[in-house]
User: Which sequence fits this backbone?
């Protein structure tokens, strides 16, 4: 079942439209109905005709005219369960593949801040992710990143960060095709991992885990397998501090708890689009305030149209590829109260490819 292709047909249908209307106004999205049905398929509640269209449970039937009828039959039969999901959940992903860009950007920031040592002397890091979901990106140093040089790209040498782990869970490997430079992968030690989310997902909660899985598109079988590995890995660590609440309200007080000797890094990915423009401005003002008091770095991975990066991105990177816009990788550092923004490149939203072209300094 291809969620995107089918959504127009779904919205147009009376049964599904009626279901969408039962969701809170902000939740009236066809993608939420698709995720709710995918959840039923993954749990084995829905089998048979419809499951045959879901590669994530081994289905291999191509979408055809019968798919919509099978889908609507399931929506009708499991109406109460689906409505419950629409009322209590939002489409919420947590995509470990995005750590490829974060790792590349962090390594670049370190080298820029400590040019003499190539980043070796960098201070230990305290990560603060806003819009952290289940906090899977906060384990970025525990994943193995393989940056594979594209044969037609600017650079031919690939790079790998190998992470051995303790063998208790299968390794999480993130492979990214590099369309421009291959980034360095060196990272200082990460000693605090803090996440803020208005609806944090708990890796220890089977229902939250099931919902994160349901939000992966059904044709993305490899992504689902990688998510499962990341969830298993996260379950073996208890050092992620997840706070529930609005990041605008929480951010400053949480950063105040971080040891002054640590380098604070604010991360956000696929999150600013949820904010109203005035909230994005408030968020920048909060960061500027923190940056006026201590050294601060930010790594953002967001849509190219979002301020404060839109102007910078247009100047440095030019317009995105219409077919594959990807996310923009942008950093800000505040040193001695002075702010420095840089657009480093673009990445496919799940980390499949990277166009890394940072400025010389
Ligand atoms: C699309 S998810 C991205 C999660 C994660 N950053 C990633 O890239 O995998 C966006 C997250 O932002 C959270 N979020 C949106 N607005 C928020 C706000 N005002 N305060 C805190 N969290 C928010 C949502 O609950 C959701 O978990």
Assistant:
């Amino acid at each position: 079942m291809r969620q995107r292709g089918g959504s127009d047909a779904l919205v147009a249908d009376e049964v599904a439209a009626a279901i969408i209307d039962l969701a809170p106004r902000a939740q009236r999205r066809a993608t939420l109905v698709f995720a709710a049905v995918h959840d039923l398929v993954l749990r084995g509640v829905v089998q048979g005709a419809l499951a045959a269209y879901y590669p994530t449970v081994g289905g291999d039937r191509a979408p055809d005219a019968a798919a919509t009828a099978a889908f609507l039959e399931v929506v009708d039969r499991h109406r109460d369960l689906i409505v419950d999901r629409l009322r209590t959940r939002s489409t919420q992903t947590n995509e470990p593949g995005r750590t490829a860009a974060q790792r590349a950007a962090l390594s670049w920031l370190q080298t820029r801040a400590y040019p003499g040592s190539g980043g070796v002397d960098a201070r230990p890091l305290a990560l603060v992710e806003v819009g952290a979901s289940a906090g899977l990106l906060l384990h970025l140093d525990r994943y193995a990143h393989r940056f594979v040089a594209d044969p037609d790209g600017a650079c031919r040498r690939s790079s790998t960060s190998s992470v051995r782990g303790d063998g208790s869970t299968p390794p999480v490997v993130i492979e990214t095709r590099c369309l421009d430079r291959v980034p360095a992968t060196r990272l200082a030690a990460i000693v605090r991992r803090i996440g803020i989310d208005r609806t944090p997902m708990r890796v220890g909660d089977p229902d939250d885990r099931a919902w994160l899985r349901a939000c992966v598109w059904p044709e993305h079988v490899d992504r689902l397998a990688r998510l499962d590995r990341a969830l298993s890995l996260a379950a073996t660590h208890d050092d992620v501090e997840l706070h529930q609440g609005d990041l605008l309200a929480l951010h400053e007080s949480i950063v105040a708890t971080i040891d002054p000797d640590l380098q604070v890094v604010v991360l956000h990915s696929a999150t600013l689009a949820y904010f109203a423009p005035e909230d994005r401005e408030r968020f920048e003002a909060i960061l500027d305030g923190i940056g006026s008091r201590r050294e601060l770095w930010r790594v953002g991975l967001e849509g190219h149209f979002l301020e404060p990066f839109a102007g910078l991105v247009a100047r440095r990177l030019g317009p995105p590829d219409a077919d594959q816009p990807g996310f923009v990788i942008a950093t800000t550092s505040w040193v001695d109260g002075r702010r420095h923004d840089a657009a480093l490149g673009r990445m496919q939203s799940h980390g499949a490819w990277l166009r890394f072209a940072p400025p010389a300094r």
